[in-house]
Amino acid sequence: MRVIPAQVVYDRVIEAISQISYFLDPEVYSALATARRTEQSKLSRDVLQALLDNADVASKQQIPLCQDTGTVVVFASFGSDVFVEGSSLEEIINAAVAKSYADNYLRASIVEDPLYERVNTRNNCPAIIHFDQVPGDKISLHIAQKGGGAENMSVLSMLKPGTEEAEIVELVRQTVCGAGGKPCPPLIIGIGIGGNFETCALLAKKALFVPVEQPNRDPQYAELESKILKTVNDSNVGPQGLGGATTALAVHILTAPCHIASLPVAINLQCHSHRHAHIVI
Ligand code: SF4
Questions:
Q1: CA distance 83 to 68
Q2: Cβ–ligand 1 contact at 186 (below 6 Å)
């Protein structure tokens, strides 16, 4: 059994949160730069240039990419032959979130009671943490800062089995067009298909972590990703909802087996401020 001191995990999580707060995913930066060259309208090009300038300023001056520094979402895969000594992984991650949000002056955005008092917890805790166990002696952590604007425009629909592909494309189109500029496009669109009510939403969230340029391994789903991307980009929502051909930079689909009576589909929208890191300890 490999033993990892809690301090090691704590330090790595703090480092990752600082990194993603200030440095835009290079693949997203590159996709925005490409869109900046290919957009036809001057307004769209200007918006994309402003997003690139924003990313440059954030990295150079170490200021947050966006004022909404998000909910911290973590997918933690725990090796069956590793043990963290000193504290639970949940406690370590939350302590690291509290410390890095205070030290880096990141906005605390979490309220304790969601409906009535809505008092800010003041340290951006708790993080939302999903655990699973895998073979091996390592800990893998996908860490993201998920902004509220894009999250609010996400949907989950329990479709009927037998629903045709075109209806799913239309559901995504309606979701993106209905959202307009609210989720701060250009978007990354994560889509979960299958599983049940809760796993479908998790698939959609996990799909956001797929590298921007990486298509689905299954050719049928890769083709569906392309169709959805084209449909969404033909919608003229455009950067920040101001029109143009760059509404989304990528569409990723993850699937899971589902019940014969069900076809859950979840659409999780992510804004251009795509902040995430993957660390392996
Ligand atoms: S949706 Fe993203 S870019 Fe827009 S305000 Fe929220 S975090 Fe910032």
A1: 34
A2: no
CA–centroid distance, 1 to ligand 1, in Å, is 42
For residue 53, how many other CB atoms are within 10 A of its CB?
Answer: 10
Ligand 1 center to 28 CA (angstroms)? 14
Peptide bond into 126 cis (omega under 30): yes
Burial category of 242 from C-beta neighbours within 10 Å (exposed 0-12, middle 13-18, buried 19 and up): middle
Distance from residue 183's CA to the centre of ligand 1 (Å): 7
How are beta strands 82-85 and 2-5 bridged, if at all? parallel
What's the pLDDT tens digit per position in 168-216?
999 999 999 999 999 999 999 999 999 999 999 999 999 999 999 999 9
For residue 51 and ligand 1, the question of a CB distance below 6 A is answered with no
Smallest CA-to-CA distance from 193 within 252, 130, 270 is with 252
User: Can you give the residue range of the structural domain that contains 142?
Assistant: 2-21+65-146
Is there a single domain that holds both residue 131 and residue 234? no
pLDDT digits (tens, 9 = 90+) for 152-164: 999 999 999 999 9
Provide the domain count of the chain. Answer: 2
DSSP states of 54-77 as a string?
A: HHHHHHHHT--SSS---EEEEEEE
